[in-house]
């Protein structure tokens, strides 16, 4: 079942129910249309800086492949790798653009499609029931380890600990 991150402009604060049309749901996972039609998908989603980076990477790859007189197979593999990267990271790139535009992540929803995610998100109840906080404690308490944080040589930081 796909997972959606829910985003709203910071200007709305916790009063996002007043303007539900401004809330954006971003699906996590592989985006087929970004893979197949990367340039058009980026324009449609208005990811302008990502589009600029995509064009730069495409041009750099094109120049490098022509300069090295690469075969058609190498050209196809290079362009396939770029398309696979865009398809697999499309959701993360969209979330990055939203955070740059001063949007905040206000929740997570698991649903079959975006419409079901919207219904599930707004049916949850009060704003506190789906407020997302990265520092929030987990719903199920985790057992404490008998090993102190210092014994782990810093590889496994404790929650709310210093970094």
Automatic annotation (TrEMBL):
Q: Which residues cross the membrane?
A: 24-44, 49-67, 73-93
The source's superkingdom equals Bacteria
Task: Note the InterPro entries from the entry.
Answer: DUF2628 (IPR024399)
Originating species: Afipia carboxydohydrogena
Entry keyword set:
Membrane, Transmembrane, Transmembrane helix
What's the name of the protein? DUF2628 domain-containing protein
């Amino acid at each position: 079942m796909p997972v959606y991150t829910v985003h709203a402009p910071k200007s709305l604060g916790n009063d996002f129910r007043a303007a539900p049309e401004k809330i954006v749901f971003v699906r996590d996972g592989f985006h087929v249309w970004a893979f197949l039609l990367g340039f058009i998908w980026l324009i449609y989603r208005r990811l302008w800086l990502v589009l600029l980076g995509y064009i730069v990477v495409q041009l750099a790859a094109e120049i490098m492949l022509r300069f090295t007189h690469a075969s058609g197979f190498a050209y196809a593999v290079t362009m396939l790798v770029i398309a696979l990267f865009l398809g697999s990271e499309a959701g993360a790139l969209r979330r990055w653009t939203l955070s740059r535009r001063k949007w905040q992540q206000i929740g997570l929803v698991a649903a079959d499609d975006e419409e079901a995610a919207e219904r599930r998100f707004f049916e949850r109840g009060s704003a506190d029931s789906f407020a997302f906080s990265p520092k929030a404690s987990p719903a199920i308490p985790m057992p404490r380890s008998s090993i102190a944080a210092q014994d782990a040589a810093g590889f496994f930081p404790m929650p709310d600990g210093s970094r």
